[in-house]
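Sorry to interrupt, but I need a hand with the structure work. Go ahead and set the record down below:
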Amino acid sequence: MHTGSYINGKWFHPKSQRLVRNINPADTGDVIAEFPAATAEDVQRSIDAAQASFRAWKKTPGPERGRVLWRAADIARQRADEIARTLTREEGKVLKEAKGEVMKGISLLEFYAGEGFRMHGKTLPSEARDTFTYTIRRPLGVVGLIAPWNFPWAIPVWKSAPALVAGNTVIFKPAELTPATATLLTAIYEEAGLPAGVFNMLVGSGSVVGEALVNSPALRAISFTGSNEVGGALYAKAALRGAKVTCEMGGKNAVIVMADADLDKAAIAIHGGAFGSTGQRCTATSRVIAAPSVKDKLLERLVEGAQKIKIGSGLDETVDMGPAVDEKQWKTDLDYLRIGGEEGARLVIGGKTPEHLGKGYFVEPTIFDNVGPHMRIFKEEIFGPVLSITTAKSLEEALQFANGVEYGLTTSIFTENVDTIMNFVEEVETGMVHVNEPTIGGEAQLPFGGTKATGVGEREMAEEGLNFFTELKTVFINYSGKAERLMIR
């Protein structure tokens, strides 16, 4: 495994006094590696390399760029177990979930490989006589990608693949908590045949590497996934200098369970959405809004499922839920467990740290009942295995509670009534909507993103993800033989 950064086709160790310690959150005594942190000077070197390689990469035909991604998908498939184990060891999610994330990234590589053949433009009729008009999409130039720790393989892929196939050159800053997975992605792109300077990777802090990227006038676009606090400041800085920006940030996702719902199916979906990946995903289910007549029966099923969860190291294939990613997130989880009790919510199950697991950032799967829509645990993103349950007397009240938070990423409803479904789809304030399935999930060919405080800028994945990394050019070809425009009379 490489333990440095990657600029202009070469691995190197930055000349830095600061080390990024890569620690297994399931066993804090397991230090995976130490990465010397990249400096502002390293950022500038990567920008210089990306600028120098842009023209040749831009002129490379789209299908040829796509074939590089297809080779990367093949290599990733051959190394899938290695990627998954590395991801589990440094991020903590269980191996089954890590393998699923690897396959999601491979699907994204395959989808965007095909987009090399479909750089979508339009032919449109002109109002002028003897004039042919059409649009084409062209790459922006050098772009910066800032990725989070919770999906250290899939999110870097869904940012980098469209950026690369569109003809941009890339500077990628992974999260400091998950640099090892980032080095595997970089090595796979290198093996797949990306020319030197087209993809550069810097392991370092947001305050140094991230700031330098955001403030550089050479970067034409920034794609960020992370916290609202960081994303809001980043958006303001980059947009002020005219860069394109997309930010995917927080979520506080609800499942509405109506009186006619299939409770067994609802419980399975809520269970996976709330406690899968230790609740550490922006699409996690953190709220349940149930009809009063079914709430108690639903709660019984949810408690029964939570009692069966085995907690431990994700490398143990019998384990169902891994640790929080680091001490900071672990303490955040514990703080919200205390806040829930202080606010008057009823702790049904969980709420503690399992002491028998030793040196690891573990939190029990936790369910609070009797949660009011005004409570912090109902409104604020926790990013841990904490589920809040409340009741609503009608669909209108359920929508009021669901929409009454600052976020708007994803939501779900369980019901058999088509009128209820259609009204829910129309009125809920989220970018993604699920019916009779969990709040989690996304597919390469479908746009991903949210509304309100969850996101700004264009959606990610799908054609929209490619469009973000391009600029639209409108072309007028006058074949009238005259210089003036011959308008319709």
Notes: The chain has two domains: 5-249+454-475, 253-435.
